[in-house]
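Re: the 293-residue chain
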Amino acid sequence: MRPIDPDLLRTFLAFAEGGSLARAAIVVNRTPSAVTAQMQRLEALIGERILAPAGRGRVLTPIGEELAAHARRILDAHRDAWLSLRGARADGRIVLGSTQDFADTMLPGLLRLFARSHPRIRLDLRIGRSKELTIAFDQGQIDILLAMRQFAAADELIVLREQMLWLCSDRGLVTDTDEVPLAVLDAPCGFRTAAISVLEATGRRFRIAATSPSLSGLRAAVLSSIAVTTRTELFLSAGIGRAPEHLALPSLPPAEFSLRLRTRAEEPAADLAALLADELRQDWAQRPERISA
């Protein structure tokens, strides 16, 4: 039996979940040619074709589909063992700052996984607005920051890009007018700035119909059908969907989020940041509109 390098399986799974060698290269931080070479090595080890040509791209063969299921289990076991050995005797405190978007969607499962392997670590969660969280991080009050990117920084582990969307209630708007009713967070807010900028640039009439200091207030305004708002796919939920095409709203730029780790952070914080970075890359790779770097 030939042992298989976990790095080969990680690259292979990045392709299986992302659908292309180019996206896999972004996830594993390698060049496309290096990813191709890794896939050739993996095929040589297995002795079977795992990728087959399909138009300009590649798809999984039946053997590749079977290997993908095994690869997920192997890498999960590898990750769990690494975390367990690192965290069994670790103690201390980690301060994690995150925006509500991530706290409501992706963070709970990842923190549950980390808590199982680091039972003695105390997690202090600070959920809030990106601007305030970034200031606290720069002042050394937060160990790990997951928020909207304010500027390029040397301590960024990954940068995540996702398309901004116009969102509104599934029931539509209560008013029918050419003037766009906007629900926005209180300034400063990158989404607010983007929405107003594209409307002004295209000459579209609009009014601020609702404001809120929190995402829960913003969600209430949208669900009540009084306004549209600008967020990403992370804000989608029951009752909130993409704004209908008949509103003819202008195109929006992508939003950038970053994961940052405080310089000279303790090992448990570095372990959690590494887990978050790895899982976020995998999640972003599965969605064509998302890009991680």
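The first strand starts at residue 51 and ends at 54.
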